[in-house]
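Sorry, I am new here, but would you mind making up a protein's amino acid sequence and the tokens describing how it folds?
***
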Amino acid sequence: MRRPVLLVIAHGSRDPRHAATVHALVRRVRAMRPGLRVETGFLDFNIPSVPAVLESLAAEDVRDVVALPLLLNRAFHAKADIPAVLREAPSRLRIRQAEVLGPSPLLTAALERRLYEAGLTPADKSSTGVVLASAGSTDPEAIAVIAEIAREWRHTGWCAVRPAFASASLPRTQDAVRELRALGCARVAVAPYVLAPGFLPDRIARGAAEADVLADVLGPAPEVARVLLERYDAARVPVLAALGA
């Protein structure tokens, strides 16, 4: 029996770096799971659109699809936008929406990977304060999740970890940087908790002007690809069970 197709659903952006990063991540996922069919669809700005991909799969007589939101937090897009698009899919498709990527220890590992790539070492942790900088949301649940990630990450040895947001919520990145300076951290690093470059990640970067270290976005880090496959596997099990596999 064929495995369900994995449809990665990205938000999309006018910034060409966004789509390029999404495609790089999908290539890594394919390399990690040979034989798994992985398609990419965008909610806005980029092509192919999610409806176009679903129509194409239906035309090929595909039956089972796991739709995976390329999102780090369960907020409006995961709760409303994506389910609305999937409800309009061709009726012949059996679609299961996977969980969003975060939170996950693998994503925390990816954040640390990016900080080390930016010049820090594990020996720097106790003297370095980290700003966990996310895009931001009006959803209280999403904000609470970011705050909890920051609290848990602090216990791995960093001097301090503070959440910050590029939009919708406070504090901003630059304010969190100054707070960590005031706490007495010898150095301050900003870790963007975002998947791909774009407008809000650029705002995070500007807010990091007074920091000592600015890490790259998570992008196609191997840990991120592993989370995608974990979410796919968790979602496809009920699909196969329903089919009697």
